[in-house]
Every structure is written in structure tokens, then in C-alpha cells.
User: What shape does this take?
Amino acid sequence: MLELLSYPFIQNALLAGFFVSIAVGVIGTLVVANKTVFVAGGIAHSAYGGIGMALYFSLPFLLGTTVFALLAALITAFFFLKYPHRIDTFIGVMWAFGMAIGIIFVDLTPGYNVDLMSYLFGSILTVPSSDLIFMGILDGIILLAVTLFYPTLLAVSYDREYAKVRGVNTVFYTVLIYVLTALTVVIAIRSVGLILVIALLTIPVYIAENFSNSLGKTMVYSSLLSLVFIFLGLGFSYEYNLTSGASIILVATAIFMLFFILRRMFARD
Assistant: This one.
């Protein structure tokens, strides 16, 4: 088994898993705390438009996805702040529009790009070195932003109205959380794909919350759990020649269900 580590694509996959685990652990905690899981799903599926446009205009996939995901995040934040009671409708529209525009651009692109499927369902074993550099940069941006604004993000996440009364610019921090969510979606695309990214943003956080008493600890534990899920899923997919993204989520879901059952059993006792 150790001989696998000598292969460059395995090394890239492990490093990609490390980058992804940091992003989903940190931002997934904020997503769950702010109850914006559906927002994250909308941004993730909207990002498919960026993939289609990147394919059509022969641009780097991650660059096109990043631009489109950030645009979707900003638009979603605007509607959330302007029409908070109708945000589910606007997210549904953005979700559908992003997928539709992506499909249209794919249809208009001559030929067929097999690699496109890896952005839908994940293919961590095919992550190139250029993507790793981009993922590392986005990870750095996420960690820097969360470190600098951690106390305020904590206040906004748990009591937005109280933070607003205390003079916190809740508009800025709401937009920041949405933007960081978009960057996390971009990082996670290669590992689990747009379709399954919500699971990796939420499952580790749910488990981690039961072992931590602060937002910061939840972020750390979630990142570690995500890393375990990704590595186990990676090994499972390689061993049985399965899609890596689906394998990672399958492992995460199995552990989640086991944890949930054991927690309920011990809770009765």
C-alpha cells in the first residue's frame, strides 16, 4: 500500500485532500452556524455556469468557476439582505440558472470533454499540480480572512441582530461569509464535485459539534474529520475503481449514520 505514495497522482490527491479538508472544515462550520446550507448548495450548482463558460472560451476551469461562484455569492447576498423572506426562491432561481447556462455552453462547445464529469461528481485522483497551487492560494485567503475577523464572525453567526445593535457591519460580514463559501466550493469541486459538496460542508460539522464547545474548536475538528473522510474515501475508490467523490461522501455518510445511531443509543442510557 505504501508504494502508492510514490505515484505523483496519489501525492497530488493527498495534498488536494488536505487543502479541501481545511476549507470545508472552517467554512462548513460557518455555513452550519449561519444556517446557510441551502445557500451553499445554490452557489455550488450555480458554479456550473462558470465551468461551461470556461470550457466554451477555453479558459482554466478553476478560474472560470471561481469568477462565476463569486458572482453567484454576491448576487445571493444581495437578495438575502434585500429580501430575506424570499431568499429560498432567489436561490432556486440562481441554482437553476447556473446549471442551465453551464449546460448551454457545454452544448455550444465543439466535441465532448470527458474531464467535465470530474467537476460534477469529483475526481480527486486527476487533480493537476496547477490546481493545487490555486487551491493553496484560496485556502490561504480563507484562513487569513477567518483569522482576522474571527470574533466578529462568531458574533454574527450566533446572534446577527445583537451584533447589529452593537454596531457591527453585518452586511459586510454576511457578504464575506458568502464569498468564503464560494471559494470553498471552488476548492472542493475536484474532490467531491458540485453535486456532492453540501455533504462535505455539513457532515463533519455535525459530528464535530458534539465534541467541541466553541466555533474555533468545531472548525479544527471538522477539518480533521474531513481529512479522514477524504483519505478513507480515496483509498476505497482506488481499491474498488469507483468514483472518488461519491466514495468520499459514501464513507462520510456511513460514519455519520454510525455516529448518529451510537449517540442515540448512549443518550437513552
Notes: Residues 170-209 form the longest helix (40 residues).
